[in-house]
């Protein structure tokens, strides 16, 4: 208290931009494939989480896809 500290915070408005981002992604203007280091089937969820937790095989971000 009384130390001349300033705290600032803000809310992000992601929900406002999501429709535009998804539209740009569908047109190929925004590329996101490079963000996932591992793409796995949904059934391999436990394996993917273990890889991430133990930092195996350079796993930084795993994406799980359901079967189509």
Kindly summarize this structure in a few lines:
This protein has 68 residues and is of the alpha+beta class. The chain has a domain of 36 residues. The protein has two helices and two strands; from the N terminus they run αβαβ.
Describe this structure in words.
The structure is a single chain. By secondary structure, the chain is an alpha+beta fold. The chain has a domain at 33-68. Helix content is 32%, strand content 12%. It contains 2 helices and 2 strands. It has helices at residues 14-26, 45-53; strands spanning 38-41, 62-65. The longest helix has 13 residues, at 14-26. The radius of gyration is 19 Å and the shape is flat. The N and C termini lie far apart (57 Å). The model has no long low-confidence stretch (mean pLDDT 88).
Low-pLDDT residue spans: none
Number of strands: 2
Mean pLDDT: 88
Strand order of the largest sheet: 1-2
Rg, Å, rounded: 19 Å
Strand content: 5-15%
Q: Which bin fits the share of residues in helices?
A: 25-40%
Main β sheet profile:
2 strands, parallel
Shape: flat
- SSE topology string: HEHE
Structural class: alpha+beta
Separation, N- and C-terminal Cα atoms: 57 Å
Total number of helices: 2
Give the quaternary arrangement of the chains.
single chain
């Amino acid at each position: 208290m009384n130390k001349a500290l300033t705290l600032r915070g803000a809310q992000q408005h992601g929900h406002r931009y999501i429709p535009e981002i998804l539209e740009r992604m569908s047109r190929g203007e925004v590329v996101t494939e490079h963000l996932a280091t591992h793409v796995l089937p949904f059934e391999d969820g436990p394996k993917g989480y273990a890889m991430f937790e133990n930092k195996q095989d350079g796993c930084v971000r795993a994406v799980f896809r359901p079967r189509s």
